[in-house]
Amino acid sequence: MVLSLSHFTLVVLFSYFASSLLLCHGFPALPQHHHRSRSASHNYRDALTKSILFFEGQRSGKLPSNQRITWRRDSGLSDGAAMHVDLVGGYYDAGDNVKFGFPMAFTTTMLSWSVIEFGGLMKGELQNAKAAIRWATDYLLKVTVHPDVIYVQVGDANKDHSCWERPEDMDTPRSVFKVDRNSPGSDVAAETAAALAAASLVFRRSDPTYSKLLVRRAVRVFQFADEHRGAYSNGLKKNVCPFYCSYSGYEDELLWGAAWLHKATNYPTYLNYIQVNGQTLGAAEFDNTFGWDNKHVGARILLSKAFLVQKLQSLHDYKGHADNFVCSLIPGAPFSSAQYTPGGLLFKMSDSNMQYVTSTSFLLLTYAKYLTSAHKVVNCGGTVVTPNRLRNIAKKQVDYLLGDNPLKMSYMVGYGPKYPQRIHHRGSSLPSIAAHPAMIQCSSGFSFMNSESPNPNILVGAVVGGPDQHDKFPDQRSDYEQSEPSTYINAPLVGALAYLAHSFGQL
């Protein structure tokens, strides 16, 4: 699909991204003989449904009548009251009851990118994916309601972590933390701008009024991020660290935010910003981690499309940077630096490693799409890497996650015959309100946390941190590094599963 540079054409194309006709072009899928065959080792459609359903289990606020994970109930209904602002809603990021704005914004950006690239393939799941995005963007609009202020966290993380209680029972302080001109947070602000901008593309056709609101807010929030520079964990260190400290700095978010605003608005301002600041905001070539903290690789892939598909020559360097990322992942290639477990799983770090597996798989499938549209390949020091090679690498990672691994364990709760039973998640591990209507006090919950029993509530679709570097997984509730799910593990997986389900004729 070759895009022209005219603003009108871009608007029209983005408006109709939900149409499979537009998105299927440039999808020659995994090896051609597999296309629409029965040889898929997994039910990617089932996994897709569950990967989106998970977000309903993470909801904070007043739950809607069509809530499908029914063991959850309303929670955090007075959030924001401490600062006289309505901060009800949004998501709990993982297994605790704090609303951390930085990973929530990244989750929203990645859910939106999943829909932008692969929404046209999602069929019946598209509405559920959009509902998951809107639950986040409604909240992000609340946290950015005042100019030059962003409410970036609700809940005292240290006090929350000293309790084990259901979100419905929370009695720990719902303290509110913010960034503003005096205590800036370019990282969380620019990521929030990226989320709003990306989501504006998702709703451009189905809800143009909402889409315009999102993009207007994104413009304002990005301006604040850029004009008042600083890392949010400088001013809020004792509240956000070590949970979601900004380790990579804020330059990556400024580039990422500008890239999304350029994509959402097509304003020359943002292209100029990227051209002028790209070098200073860019990272070293060997920086190949992509996740809630570090956006460099994502920005490179996103900007490579502007060069490959829209032919913006001024951004030609980003293809080279994106290629370097790909080459770092190819075992045996001259510039390969990635580590894999004996069973074949990409292994970045022991804490929540699966987030890097899902984000990398998504980037490989997305970059393969861009390369296919432009009839290009990747050259790794003489080794030619085709788009189909990228698709196969991504598929192997997703297949490992779904059960093709030494333990024959699906790391998605509720998918397949064997999956984690004792995930590190308060609501899942404690009896539901229906089963136990009386409040479970702060410390009383630890008897459930320390129990060997399986969790009573199945958090369907939750993807946990995953196995260690030797493919081992103890399935212990106390082991948060391996057993805790999070929204930012699932968000990029949604797009990858949509692509795979379509490729194998399951959608």
Automatic annotation (TrEMBL):
Domain of life: Eukaryota
Catalytic activity reported: Endohydrolysis of (1->4)-beta-D-glucosidic linkages in cellulose, lichenin and cereal beta-D-glucans
InterPro entries for this protein: 6-hairpin_glycosidase_sf, 6hp_glycosidase-like_sf, Glyco_hydro_9, Glyco_hydro_9_Asp/Glu_AS, Glyco_hydro_9_His_AS
Record's signal peptide: 1-20
Matches recorded under PROSITE patterns: GH9_2 (PS00592), GH9_3 (PS00698)
EC main group: hydrolase
EC code: 3.2.1.4
Sorted UniProt keywords: Carbohydrate metabolism, Cellulose degradation, Glycosidase, Hydrolase, Polysaccharide degradation, Signal
Domain Glycoside hydrolase family: 44-497
Active-site residues from the entry: 424, 475, 484
SUPFAM superfamilies: Six-hairpin glycosidases
Family matches, as PANTHER family: ENDO-1,4-BETA-GLUCANASE
Family of this protein: Belongs to the glycosyl hydrolase 9 (cellulase E) family.
Protein name from the UniProt record: Endoglucanase
Species this chain originates from: Hevea brasiliensis
